[in-house]
Design brief:
- By secondary structure, the protein is an all-alpha fold.
- It has one domain: Lysozyme (Orthogonal Bundle), CATH 1.10.530.10.
- It contains eight helices and no strands.
- The relative contact order is 0.13.
Length: 177
């Protein structure tokens, strides 16, 4: 009897915690995320994790460095990405959720093509590819030149950790079974 009650309480607590996690990890903008995730081969849960970490789903977010929108894209990066995709460029477009998700997801895909490891992609997304390339060449940060063992920027290290935790939560909540 006590074992049955303990199991029931455990399921109840797990259900409550899942509800809290779902509230804290929404699937806002799913219509855009599913389209661009499929188009660029980036798992949806990763796109959600980056958006949650970067802007908390605030499409009008602007960082102190000038990154804009849901996925916090720098205007210079956006301009470069538009040339890669053959699109027109206007910084104000970054406030549009569909545009921001399209280019943010494309950028994640591009970086994955370069680094082939999500934690390294997250580091490059945050600190820039040139910084990550320097770290990968330095034995203090990478043993093999392909995997970051240590990230010298505390902000980037914290960003990678937050995205990884958010991705694990999204995967568990929405994409398992």
């Amino acid at each position: 009897m006590i074992a049955t009650a303990s199991v029931a309480v455990g399921f109840l607590i797990e259900g409550i915690l899942d509800k809290i996690d779902r509230r804290n990890h929404p699937q806002s903008y799913s219509q855009y995320i599913s389209v661009y995730s499929e188009a660029y081969g980036v798992p949806e849960y990763i796109v959600y994790a980056v958006i949650k970490t970067e802007s908390g789903f605030d499409s009008s977010a602007v960082s102190s460095d000038g990154a804009i929108g849901l996925m916090q894209i720098m205007p210079e990066t956006f301009k470069w990405l538009t040339t890669l995709l053959g699109d027109s460029y206007e910084t104000g477009m970054l406030y549009d959720p569909a545009t921001n998700i399209k280019y943010g997801t494309y950028y994640l895909s591009y970086l994955y093509g370069v680094y082939a490891r999500w934690p390294t992609v997250y580091a490059a997304y945050n600190a820039g590819p040139s910084a990550v390339d320097r770290w990968l060449e330095d034995k203090a940060y990478s043993d093999d030149g392909t995997n970051l063992e240590k990230i010298p920027y505390p902000e980037t290290e914290a960003f990678v950790s937050r995205v990884e935790r958010a991705a694990e939560t999204y995967l568990r909540l929405y994409y398992k079974d």
